[in-house]
């Protein structure tokens, strides 16, 4: 089991100007997606700077090897939730499905309703990141990203895209949805990189 925690003491695990919560606040922009048949309405695409694009059905995605990880998450709005247990598909299993071209240095996650989020490829590929299907032993709720949510705990939680549907591999960085609306391009909670001017 992978654990992403800076130190053993709880206080040292909470970044500056964050407060611990035991709840799991729901924050998102737009409508929560609804599905009646994932077999026909859902797919996952790996594209951009890859040797050959890959599209997976929901069944194929769920057949990939799973893992469990425990980590802390930090929301840009000021809350931190410690010791989250996730179950899902490790990012390294997804990366095995494509040959990424050497010039790819960034990724853009694509989610429902045209929502996007950017990050360096090195951050995306970091051990412990996963495409989550469960949180604390329960299936994700639609409000928290069911059927699939990317989990990237070392950056602010807006980088952990809900309802993720694909990964685009890119040579140069581009702004995702929140980055176009004033949020920081990287989003390190320990440096308080909340907004573009931070």
From TrEMBL:
This is Sulfite oxidase-like oxidoreductase. It comes from the Bacteria. Residues 1-22 are annotated as: Disordered. Residues 30-178 form the Oxidoreductase molybdopterin-binding domain. It holds the Pfam family Oxidored_molyb. PANTHER family: OXIDOREDUCTASE MOLYBDOPTERIN-BINDING DOMAIN-CONTAINING PROTEIN (PTHR43032:SF4), PROTEIN-METHIONINE-SULFOXIDE REDUCTASE (PTHR43032).
């Amino acid at each position: 089991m992978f654990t992403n925690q800076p130190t053993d003491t709880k206080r040292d695990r909470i970044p500056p100007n964050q407060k611990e919560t035991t709840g799991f606040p729901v924050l998102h922009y737009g409508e929560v997606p609804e599905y009646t048949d994932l077999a026909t309405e859902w797919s996952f695409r790996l594209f951009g700077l890859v040797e050959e694009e890959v599209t997976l059905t929901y069944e194929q995605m769920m057949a990939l090897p799973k893992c469990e990880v425990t980590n802390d998450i930090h929301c840009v709005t000021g809350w931190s939730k410690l010791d989250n247990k996730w179950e899902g598909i490790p990012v390294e299993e997804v990366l095995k499905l494509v040959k990424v071209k050497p010039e790819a240095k960034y990724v853009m996650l694509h989610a429902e309703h045209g929502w996007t989020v950017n990050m360096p490829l090195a951050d995306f590929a970091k051990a412990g990141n996963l495409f989550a299907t469960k949180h604390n032993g329960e299936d994700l709720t639609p409000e928290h990203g069911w059927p699939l949510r990317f989990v990237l705990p070392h950056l602010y939680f807006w980088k952990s895209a809900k309802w993720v549907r694909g990964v685009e591999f890119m040579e140069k960085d581009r702004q995702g949805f929140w980055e176009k609306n004033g949020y920081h391009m990287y989003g390190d909670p320990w440096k308080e990189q909340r907004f573009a001017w931070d």
